[in-house]
Amino acid sequence: MGINSAKQHFLLISACALVLEGLIAGVAVAQPDRYGAIATSASGGWGYGYDYLTRQEAEQKALRECGKSDCQVQVWFKNACGAVAKDQLGNLGWGWAVTREQAEASALSGCGTGACRIQVWACTTR
Fold this sequence. Notes:
The protein has about 130 residues and is an alpha+beta fold. It has 2 domains: about 30 residues; about 90 residues, no CATH class.
């Protein structure tokens, strides 16, 4: 094999390696959906669960974390964030969105009074 032939062979192998690397890197691995939920109680309890594979698992975790007999799931979300806002009179607002900030804004808007504050928020990792 001559020098030119050796160079061509080397370039061909290098090009094939680059193409193969690009193909491997371009293959997206499907990520499973992630669920979250937030539960609150009128008696002051709250809890959340996030990054569960099902809505039911996330809601069960939120209710367990809330720990009161009157806990209720206020919001659930998939591959997103959720938030709950509350004022001193017990008015609630909740929301979900792609970002924490948007979820909090939705919760504050839904609460309806200027005295509402974010009580709890959570986001999934996806």
